[in-house]
Amino acid sequence: MGNPEGEHALACEFVGTQLARWFDLPTLEFGIVNVTDADRLPFHRKGKGLAKTGPAFITKADPGEPWGGKKRELKRLVNPNDISRLVVFDTWVCNTDRYSHNEDGSVRRRIDNVFLSENAPAGKLLLRAVDHTHCFTSGREILAKNLGASLIRDNRVFGLFPEFETFLNRRAVREAAADLRQMTMATAKAIVSTIPAEWDVSAGGRSALVDFVVKRAAYLSEDVLRGTDPEPRIMILLWPQGEMFDSDEPER
Q1: C-alpha to C-alpha distance for 154 and 178, rounded to whole angstroms
Q2: How far is CA 80 from CA 20, 45, 204, in A?
Q3: pTM here?
């Protein structure tokens, strides 16, 4: 608490990481710990002071490093289909902090938010979903006005680095869409209810976040006609040109 982005960033991180785990994406081990005056925890950037007392989001150190931006690293993944799943996830939660197109046409590219773990067989890497502070509200407060119908129906794709495109797998995306259909109000409420009260997310903000998570999942997984064939909307967003290859395997 007391970080420059505010306590709602902690709530987005905590909820986003739990949703990623629910979505069968590998995450870092995480939890909530209580910071006391005796801990004297400094923020990463110098001059930002010490963390305030109260609940804090924590992850366990993991061997590995951020993606360097090269395709050759992605070819070493033991879970290459999770590239597709991560793009679907980022699009579901409107995560602007990996790869996104801004309204002014500029691109936000954060390769340091793609983590490649060495907890894998020799010579291989494991893609993990990390850093979710800009899910849902793009760093703004968790309020109903920031989680409205226009965001639920936003047709932008998030998290799709150009280097990811040839690794997209249609079968993996269809499976991810099927999983989105399983998100229920009860599940979303159970996750959002874990936000510590000290992080000051109001009842209205929590309710709006639950509503967004469920309705956005339904919107992206809803079948839409493409010609005479129904397909989940996320398929059409990722492949607006339609079927180009016979295989469901990614082009290499």
Answers
A1: 19
A2: 16, 33, 38
A3: 0.93
Lookup result for tokens 């691109």: 107
Tens-digit pLDDT profile for residues 221-241: 999 988 788 999 999 999 988
Q: Strand 126-129: give its sheet, edge to edge.
A: 64-66, 114-117, 126-129
Buried b (16+ CB within 10 A) or exposed e, 5-29: ebbbbbbbbbbbbbbbebbebbbbe
Task: Say which CATH topology domain 7-238 has.
Answer: 1.10.1070
**Two structure tokens written together for 157:** 């794709």
The span from the CA of 252 to the CA of 108, in Å, is 25
For the stretch 144-169, pLDDT in tens is: 999 999 999 999 999 999 999 999 99
7-26 pLDDT tens trace:
999 999 999 999 999 999 99
Sign of CA dihedral 101, 229, 232, 239: negative
Three-class secondary structure of residue 8 per DSSP: helix
Cβ(194)–Cβ(21) below 8 Å: no
